[in-house]
Design a protein that fits this description.
This protein is an alpha+beta fold. Helix content is 36%, strand content 26%. Helix 2 crosses helix 3.
Length: 145
């Protein structure tokens, strides 16, 4: 089953997006590079939000990234996930950023394969604040195969 077919099965939304202030996904050579996509969930991980809340927020970011990639490139097929950067709005003593960003990685593994084109490099970092109070922000780089 292709990534597009799996995404459709999961009910992911790839409807057209209006142009914004910044380009959500830009092509450079054979790479698709996304802007940071923020979660709808707001709040601090290790404060009001749990790791499970953060995991869902990171998955939300990955869904938005895939929508932007699809809108810019016309498909999510024929891609390899190269790199994710996950930013987590964190309390000072919160150290489970990696578990939060697994929400984004796991969706990409589900679509592209954990041992195949979905096997990616990743950073998961804690921040004192994120734009609009978002719980999570994720950006990605894909290679066009």
């Amino acid at each position: 089953m292709s990534p597009s077919e799996k995404a459709q099965e999961l009910g992911l939304d790839f409807s057209p997006q209006e142009k914004g202030y910044l380009n959500l996904c830009i092509r450079s050579g054979n790479l698709l590079i996304t802007s940071g996509h923020t979660s709808d969930a707001k709040g601090v991980l290790g404060g009001a939000l749990s790791v499970d809340d953060g995991y869902a927020a990171a998955r939300d970011c990955a869904e938005k990234i895939l929508r932007s990639v699809h809108n810019a490139h016309g498909t999510i097929d024929g891609l390899r996930v190269v790199k994710l950067l996950g930013c987590v709005y964190s309390a000072g003593d919160f150290t489970d950023q990696h578990l939060v960003i697994n929400g984004a990685s796991d969706l990409l593994h589900e679509l592209y394969g954990k041992d195949g084109d979905g096997y990616h490099a990743r950073s998961a970092l804690g921040f004192a604040a994120l734009p609009t109070g978002a719980a999570v922000e994720v950006e990605a780089i894909f290679e066009i195969l």
